[in-house]
Amino acid sequence: ALVAEYGPDQLVPFSGEVPDGEEAPEPAAFDRDEQTKRLRSAERALAQLGRINPLALEEFSALEERHKFLTEQLEDLRRTRRDLLDIVREVDERVEQVFTEAYADVVTAFDQTFTRLFPGGEGKLVLTDPNDMLTTGIEVEARPAGKKVKRLSLLSGGERSLVAVCFLFALFKARPSPFYILDEVEAALDDTNLGRLLEIYEELRENSQLLVITHQKRTMEVGDALYGVTMRGDGVSAVISQRLRDSA
Length: 248
What we know:
Elements lengths: L1 H5 L25 H17 L7 H62 L4 E6 L10 E6 L13 H18 L4 E5 L7 H14 L4 E5 L3 H5 L3 E7 L5 E7 H4 L1
Helix pairs in contact: 3-4
């Protein structure tokens, strides 16, 4: 029966690879040399496979489980990244909104303060990159009365100090705080500019407490209390205080 079904007089079906879109060739007559070549080729291919690994299925299951775990972890990381990007976008939008509102208020306060500290002068704040409020810088342009220059580097030391104080007080007025600490901000000012500065001090003290470090006598005179450090005869420092308003 086997000889009748698989004997040399039976046609041998084609066993090679068929390109996509083409039909397999028709069965051909038995050719011993051709079939011998096929046998040897199959034996070489079988030898190249090597010995059978009896643990292959278990290893495959373990690797498949590991792959599934890593895939889930990767997807979780992607979701976390999307969530973080959403949070960053929301924070950027909020920061841009807060900065834009604060900048508008500071610009208004700066204009008002500058005209008081520099009568007849002109000063303004300019954004370096108005199209990107998150990365833009702020430049200060100041032109005192009688001068044509606007760059701070071309102003005198006292004028630069006064412009810095002007910007500082603009921040104070735009976003008030319960108290302020000022460390010798009027050290480079002459008597005229110092008088203008003290007027702004008086306005700020109505709603805030000022802690001023100074060597200017006129500044000390407008304070409510004075605190100083002196050296005693034995060389030890001592803190002294005096309330001016109560003793007046």
